[in-house]
User: What shape does this take?
Amino acid sequence: MALDGITVSCIRKEMADRLAGGYITKIAQPEKDELLLTIKNAGSVYRLVISANASLPLIYFTDKNKPNPLSAPAFCMLLRKHIGSGHIIDIVQPSLERVLFILIEHRDEMGDMKRKKLIIELMGKHSNIIFADDEDTIIDSIKRVPANISSVREVLPGRKYFIPQTVEKYDPFTISENDFINTVFSASCELSKAIYTSVTGFSPMAGEEICLRASVDSAKHAGDCTENERLHVFRTFTRFMDDIRNSVYAPAIYFENGSPADFSVFEAQLYSGYEKQPFGSVFDLLYSYYAQKETLSRIRQKSADLRKIVSTALERNVRKLQLQQKQLKDTEKRDKFRVYGELLTAYGYGLEECADKLETENYYTGEKVTIPLDPEKSPLENAKKYFDKYSKLKRTFEAVSIQAEETSKDIEHLESIQTALDTASDEADLSQISDELKESGYIKKKASDKKGRSSKAKPLHFISSDGYDIFVGKNNYQNDELTFSTPYGYDWWFHSKGAPGSHVVVKSDTPVPPDSTFEEAGRLAAHFSKGRQASKVEIDYTLRRNVKKPNKSKPGFVVYYTNYSMMASPDISGIKQADV
Assistant: This one.
């Protein structure tokens, strides 16, 4: 869900509950587009961060102070002068706009009571923090916007403040039934888009949610809706707005296959099949959601170089294997040359001088065969020539077979590293993968590299619905440690069949855990494998003591000869992950 007007309304409610009636005690500007306000209210101290960052505008409470520049910026000094000890009267959201007004009372130099507005605009790249008087005249802003930057609205001292209306929309709190129906159902687009483009503060997700609750296809053209559908959509919209008006919120993050897919401040039926993490505060929700998104983004960025190294090495090895397979195909006729030599040795004595072929019977198969000859050579010399060809192709076959096997193992190893990069969840995981690439010779070691592994990342830890601990290796080092470095007991081992993936181990003190635990471990093995995009993945499982590691084999490589198999879905929603 975008940071739309509905989310901002939830933010307003929580800010008002905590801050209304409080006094501002400190104002800081740690970043050029960010304020940190310290507010005391009812015996509590709150630190409010207001960010007008173009890529991630946000408001949240924090327990930590931020380092400030040695010299406070001019905007910060202006705020300190006017509202440094101001009293917060209220926090207002006009209509359902992505705008908040913090209404502040303070005394001027003459001791007279004055009112000011700290206006927070959470509008993506147009986000801003504007300071205005009680008549909406702009005193200053954290980002000044002259006419040459925006033809819609100047944000400069002395200008009148107003919320720009680039598209005419209705206030969702006051729109009438006639206006709603006439506007939404006359739009030349699908129904969900018609809803969120007709009223202020709605995101595409909110439009989809209204359609779902009204049991009308969101992709249906708005003009094609029946009279009953139009009435039902409006009534659903009205009930939805009643909840917003009455501050009925249910902040939650919705997860798909373990990753945060979206968040919502209302009960999102749109994500009814997703794993849900509820929050008591919208600020905790936003902090957690964007922190997880930032972590995933940072991991993807930092893994880009490793991915390129692995991808390049994988492509090179695939081309090498193709050439080796072509060479092996060329050696398939080696036995034919051996048979030619043996037949010439056996039957060549009866050939005429300068004969260019021998027609005889292959005593191995009983078939007639014609053997080409060099007429300038004797039958024995021709036989030697065929034996030499056979010997050369045999040597090539033996050498290339070993090389092809090694190349296949390298490809399997690199594919397992690719899968590990998809599974990596922190920098320690990437460090272990980097160590593995160095030890395997894909990355050149530097003199500054310490001997041994640079970090100690831990496998993922889940708890089955029956209470069994399930561990998932995130790379080949963790796979080896998980499978071989702890006591066996009655532990069970799971892995995707014939494809790279994580080793999954169910810790058990009893010979056979419940079926539901087996099913959940299988789903984890499917999810953390190369086949995670498929609807079903074949999983091998066996007692962990049946899994062996051949001498001098690559990290993560194992063999087993006794196992069971199952088909498992890669969907891991509902499987509880243990707290770190």
About this structure: The mean pLDDT is 91. The CA atoms of residues 50 and 59 lie 5 Å apart.
